[in-house]
Amino acid sequence: MNTVSPGPIDTPALDRQDDPAALRTSLAAMVPLRRLGRSEEIAAAVLFLAADDNRYTTGFDLVVDGGHTQI
User: Fold this and answer.
1) What is the rounded CA–CA span in Å between residue 38 and residue 22?
2) Which residue from 3, 4, 14, 31 could staple onto 66, CB 3.0 to 4.6 Å apart?
3) Exposed / middle / buried, residue 48 (Cβ in 10 Å: 0-12, 13-18, 19+)
4) Cβ 5 vs Cβ 60: under 8 Å
């Protein structure tokens, strides 16, 4: 089984928080790329793992977090 571990992603759920702009700024500050991820970037990672050309990859955790876990 393969997994995808996303970092902070800019989704509409953030808009339901008390101060969405401050939350986005705070989350982005924790990421070395200094921005939140996009849903399309996570989808691309999932498609990579699901591709026929990648059928020999097993037990892999693809971290898609803008470098957050590397700090």
Assistant:
1) 18
2) 31
3) middle
4) no
